[in-house]
Every structure is written in structure tokens, then in C-alpha cells.
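>> received
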Amino acid sequence: MFWKRLASSAVLVVLALIFLIWGGAALGILCTVLSLIAFHELTKACHVAENKEAGALIAAGDAGIVLFGAAMLLTKNMLWGMGALVLMFLACMFVYVFRFPKYHADQVMTVFFCAFYPGVLFSFLYLTRELTWGVYLVWLIFISSWICDTCAYLTGMAIGRHKLAPVLSPKKSIEGSIGGVAGSALVGALFAWIFLLPLTNQPETVWAVALISAAGAVISQVGDLAVSRQQMVEIAKALSQNARVLIMDEPTSALTSKEIDELFKIIHQLKEDGIGIIYIS
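>> returned
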């Protein structure tokens, strides 16, 4: 698992180096493409894309992401981006109203969120890169996420003893979480000392970047509870209500291989605790 994660991280770092150093329109277009891919994955995870009749809503989401990406690429002004998001929301509402009762309100809002979430967040890669010193500042995003994830994984393997969220993510430990935040802060400080301090000549820059990296690491760990974790969340909700029987309908459809392994460990533990499970594959 470690070597597989290391290899995949190396490939991502190389690709990130190419596009982030290059910047410009290439990075903006890449962020839009990644947003479209993430949008379709999220709609699948939320079981919206499974409905063959949801094509009009999905098309509205696609158009909104492309329009938002174009606004960011051409203007770099979030005000124009907000206009694109409003148009996307109106398009979803038009579909809802004129195709009523074909679609439900929850489907409309789910599609809007699934487009808004990756579309806006990926755009910050491009917008940050386009700032003064953006070629350096953009790497703080990855220090807060990749470095945190790697340090949390290694710390958890080495000294992890206390579970952070036993039901939701059995492998995460409190020690690993602290190690991830500390690792991001240290790498952020080192990065600032090497690249940013010569530009600013202000020692406070190192401390500021360390703090930003640590805060970003905390946010990235919370963000790890994404849509792909919703199966775990539903299990936790059921257990909190003292459920004795769980019915799982294709629970692995939106999970990664790592998360599938965690899910089956949870299922095994639940069986040992005497909870009945009906698993539909």
C-alpha cells in the first residue's frame, strides 16, 4: 500500500509541476476539465447520474462549469464567476419547473452542489497561480493536502494508537492527524524559508506560511469526509440509532479501493458485534 501510494504521488507531483509551473490558459483549462470529471463522479456517488432521465440536469451542470471556467479564464474575476453560477442555478430551476414533476427539488440541489463544489474549488488553483508570486504560493495548497496526508499516514503507521473516528475511518488515528498537521507546518516553513523569504526579506513570512499550511492541513482532513465517505456516514447514523440490521445496496459503488477495504473491516466488526447485515451487490 505504501509503495503504491508513493508511486501515485510521484506521478501526480510530476504532472503538477508541469501544469503549475506552466500556468496560464493551460492550467485554467485543466482545472475546468478536472471539475467536469469530478462533477460526474459526484453525481454518480449521489445516485443522480444513475437516473437515465436526469440528462437535462446533468447538461445544465456541465454548461455551468464550462461557463464558470471560461469566466475565470477570461476575467480572473470572481464576480463574473458568481454570475456564471447564478445562470447555472437558474438553468437547473428552469429544468425543474418546465419538466415538473419529472425532477425532485433534492435532485436539482444535488446537481447544483455537485457542480459548484469542484468547479469553484478547482478554480482557486488557477487563480492562486495567477497571483504575484503565484508560482510559489500555489504549492501551499498541495503542502496542506498531500504532505498532510503522507505525514498522517506515516505517523499513524508508526505510533498511531488512538482512533480518530473508529466507525467512519478505522485506520485514522489521533496521532496520525496531529502528525499530518505538524508535517504540513514544518514543510510549509521550510518551503517559505527556501523560496519566499528571499523575495520578502521578512522573517515573519516563514511563520505565516507555517500557520497557513497547518490550518490548510486541518481543513483537508475534514474535507476527507467527502461524498465517497457517505456510505460510512450512513452506517454511523444507523448505529447511533441502535440499529440491529443494516441493508446495504451496492455500498462500494462510490468508494475507492482503500475505502472498500475499510468498509469490509467495518462490516466484519459489525458482524462480530451481533449486527445483522443484508448486502446487495
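>> Strands lie at 163-165, 169-173, 245-249, 276-280.
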